[in-house]
Write a structure and sequence with these properties.
The protein is an all-alpha fold and about 280 residues long. It is about 70% helix and about 0% strand. The longest helix is centred in the middle third of the chain and has 53 residues.
C-alpha cells in the first residue's frame, strides 16, 4: 500500500495545515513546467496530488489511516509472533489497537475543527458586537461624558472609569483583529503569481488589505445606518432620557462601542470556558 505520508514527507500526526503546506511546497518543486515536461517529474507530481487528495479530506484520511494501520500490523515480518497469530486474543488485541488509532485520528480532527470554529467566533463576535454597538450609539447619540450633571467628584470618577474601560476595550478589539489577521488573512506582499516561486503560497482566502477594507467599510456603514435612523426618526431628548438624542454627535459614540465589545466578548469567553 502506498504511504501518502512518505510521499508528502510529513508525519502521520501532521495537522491539516502542515499537510497543505507540504503539498504546496512539493508542488512548486515538482511542477512539470519547471522541469521541461519531464515524465518522471510529472509522475511524482501526480503522486503528491493523489496523496493530498486523500489526506486533505478528514473522512478519507481517517479511512486511509485505519487501513494503513491494519496493513502495518499485519505485515511486520513476524509470522509466528503474537501480533501475527490467529489466536482470538491476538486478533482482539489487533482490533483494539486499530480502533484506538482510529479514535485518536477522529478526535484530533474534531479538535482541529473546534479550534478553527473557536478562532472564527473570537473574530466574528467582537466584530459583530462592534458593528451593532456603533449602529445603536449612533442612533441614540448619548451625551453623558461631558454632561453638566456630572461636575462633582462622582462625575470625575465616572469619566475616569469610562476612559479606562474605553482604552482596555480598544486594546482588546485590536488584539482580536490582529489574531484574526494572523489566522485568516495573508500579507499581500507575500503574494507571487507563479506556483514555482520560492515562497509559501497563501492558503487563506482574504488578504490583510481586503479584510481591513471590509472592516472599515462595515464600521462606516454602521455609523451611516445609525445616524440615518436616529435623525430620520427625529428623536429628541426627554425628561426621562435627558442624556440621549443630542442634537449633534458627541464623543460618547466613540467611547461606548469598544466598552460594549469588551463586555460582550468577556461573556462569550466565559461561556467558552464553561463549555470546556
Amino acid at each position: 500500500m502506498v504511504n501518502y505520508y512518505d510521499i508528502l514527507k510529513v508525519s502521520p500526526q501532521a495537522s491539516s495545515a502542515e499537510i497543505k503546506s507540504a503539498y504546496r511546497r512539493l508542488a512548486r518543486k515538482l511542477h512539470p513546467d519547471s522541469h521541461q515536461g519531464s515524465e518522471e517529474t510529472a509522475l511524482k507530481f501526480a503522486e503528491i496530488a493523489e496523496a493530498y487528495e486523500v489526506l486533505s479530506k478528514p473522512k478519507d484520511r481517517a479511512r486511509y489511516d485505519k487501513r494503513l494501520l491494519e496493513i502495518t500490523l499485519g505485515s511486520n515480518g513476524f509470522a509466528d509472533s503474537f501480533i501475527e497469530s490467529s489466536n482470538p486474543h491476538a486478533r482482539r488485541w489487533r482490533q483494539m489497537v486499530v480502533e484506538k488509532r482510529y479514535s485518536d485520528i477522529i478526535d484530533k480532527m474534531i479538535a482541529e475543527e473546534r479550534n478553527d470554529a473557536i478562532a472564527l467566533q473570537k473574530f466574528l463576535f467582537p466584530l459583530g458586537a462592534l458593528v451593532v454597538s456603533v449602529i445603536f450609539f449612533s442612533m441614540i447619540r448619548p451625551d453623558i461624558f461631558f454632561s453638566s450633571y456630572f461636575t462633582d467628584i462622582t462625575g470625575v470618577l465616572a469619566r475616569l472609569i469610562l476612559v479606562t474601560l474605553f482604552v482596555i476595550g480598544v486594546i482588546h478589539v485590536i488584539g482580536r483583529m490582529r489574531e484574526a489577521f494572523d489566522r485568516f488573512a495573508f500579507d499581500d506582499n507575500d503574494i507571487h503569481d507563479s506556483v514555482l516561486d520560492g515562497t509559501e503560497i497563501p492558503t487563506r482566502h482574504w488578504s490583510r488589505y481586503s479584510m481591513s477594507a471590509l472592516i472599515i467599510l462595515g464600521i462606516v456603514g454602521a455609523f451611516t445606518i445609525g445616524f440615518g435612523v436616529g435623525y430620520g426618526l427625529d428623536l429628541k431628548p426627554s425628561i426621562t432620557a435627558p442624556y440621549l438624542f443630542s442634537e449633534f454627535p458627541q464623543i460618547d459614540i466613540l467611547l461606548f462601542p469598544p466598552i460594549f465589545v469588551l463586555l460582550v466578548d468577556s461573556i462569550h469567553g466565559l461561556i467558552l470556558n464553561l463549555e470546556k
